[in-house]
Amino acid sequence: MATERTLSIIKPDATKRNLTGKINAKFEDAGLRIVAQKRIQLTQDQAGKFYAVHAERPFFGELTEFMASGPVVVQVLEGEGAIAKNREVMGATNPADAAPGTIRAEFAESVGENSVHGSDAPDTAKEEIAFFFSGLELVG
Ligand code: DAT
Ligand code: MG
Fold first, then answer.
1. Residue 14 burial (10 A CB sphere; 0-12, 13-18, 19+)
2. Residues with C-beta less than 6 Å from any ligand 1 atom
3. What residue stretches are annotated with the Nucleoside diphosphate kinase-like domain (predicted)?
4. pTM score > 0.95 for this model?
5. Which residue of the set 8, 91, 117, 133 is catalytic?
6. Radius of gyration of the CA atoms of the chain, in A
7. Which of 97, 104, 114, 134 could join 92 via S-S bond, C-beta 3.0 to 4.6 A?
8. Which residue, judged by its Cα, is nearest atom 17 of ligand 1?
């Protein structure tokens, strides 16, 4: 499998509870390398642009309000099959369905406040990395 990069976000519920280090340890233990990382505050409008694919969903307002409710840590993870591996380490969207040991099983509070985002495919990973990081911030 090829080396890939994927976009990860540590969401406001997790940054508020000071879980950035514990979540990063899960990534590193799984063989993912954090090759770019920054802590930022999104506006609801920016969160809406990032999650535009969900604009018609009934939870869109709740989702964008939550994503703007506090700081997030956006990061690029790199490794063999990083996109799928990250989704595995994250666990299912709803923490009630997430496998034991996954980030969402251990830390998520609800389906909405579920601690992490991860890109779901090579095309979205590329778009989502470019949404947050410039070429200068991405060393080889
Ligand atoms: P994922 O984050 O696992 O890729 P998704 O892309 O289906 O899940 O949805 C994006 C985010 O939207 C998800 O992390 C939390 C929120 N969300 C999804 N389904 C929801 C629901 N039924 N109620 C509230 N928020 C929801
Ligand atoms: Mg998704």
1. buried
2. 54, 59, 62-63, 93, 111-112, 114, 117, 120
3. 3-140
4. yes
5. 117
6. 14
7. 97
8. 112
Q: At what angle do helices 20-29 and 82-90 cross, to 10 degrees?
A: 130
**CA-to-CA distance for 94 and 88, rounded, in angstroms?**
13
**Complex ipTM, two decimals?**
0.98
Q: Which residue owns the Cα nearest ligand 1 atom 26?
A: 112
Instruction: pLDDT band for 71, please (50, 70, 90 cuts).
Output: very high
Q: What is the pLDDT of residue 1?
A: 74
What's the pLDDT tens digit per position in 83-135?
999 999 999 999 999 999 999 999 999 999 999 999 999 999 999 999 999 99
Token pair listed for 55:
């604009």
Residue 54 has pLDDT above 90, yes or no: yes
Q: Kindly report the protein residue whose alpha carbon is nearest to atom 25 of ligand 1.
A: 112
* 85 known ligand binder: no
Q: Cα(17) to centroid of ligand 2, in Å?
A: 22
